[in-house]
Amino acid sequence: GNSVTQMEGPVTLSEEAFLTINCTYTATGYPSLFWYVQYPGEGLQLLLKATKADDKGSNKGFEATYRKETTSFHLEKGSVQVSDSAVYFCALNFGNEKLTFGTGTRLTIIP
Amino acid sequence: GAVVSQHPSWVICKSGTSVKIECRSLDFQATTMFWYRQFPKQSLMLMATSNEGSKATYEQGVEKDKFLINHASLTLSTLTVTSAHPEDSSFYICSARTGGVYEQYFGPGTRLTVT
Fold first, then answer.
1. Could you state, in chain order, the average pLDDT of each consecutive group of 10 residues for chain A (111 residues)?
2. Any chain A CB within 8 A of the CB of B34?
3. Which of A20, A28, A57, B106 could tie A48 with a disulfide, CB 3.0–4.6 Å?
């Protein structure tokens, strides 16, 4: 079956540090890939997505590139802010099928 | 656009009672809605998928008689936790999708505490 593996957290960084959250997937075929963010006490928000190999999703300074050869979709940001503190979920799906989520990575940014 | 709301945002109920959670798509027609359960510090577990006017499809291991899902209209789905027990305490999140669009839009979640 399909699965998503994320780096385990929690991750704690200082403000303006570089962020990488690793995500790899296992799937038959080429799924769409997503990063969702969940701020404290809230539901999930779509952060970015990529639907085919070599696509780069970007939003709010975050980027992730769909790497078919390494089946990865790592999330990066060059300079994090305190407001980026949240839980980040990597996910995949095929077409209109259900989303498969990773376990989530809790990120805390300290001033 | 693409806003999904949930009501209530939090609820406390006594063991043995039932509680209903509403999920509404505010500015689009949701042909498909999904219900997830999230345990503390863990990922989302899909409970069921519902299409408007059809019976919900439950994931393996989810008791359909305990978690009743109704997708009565294109803007409303409800999850009823029947005969709730403390182990049902969790954060329940719904999402919605409109036909032809694969992206899911998530509600803010409902925290259920069963005492």
1. 89 97 93 93 89 95 97 97 96 84 94 95
2. yes
3. A57
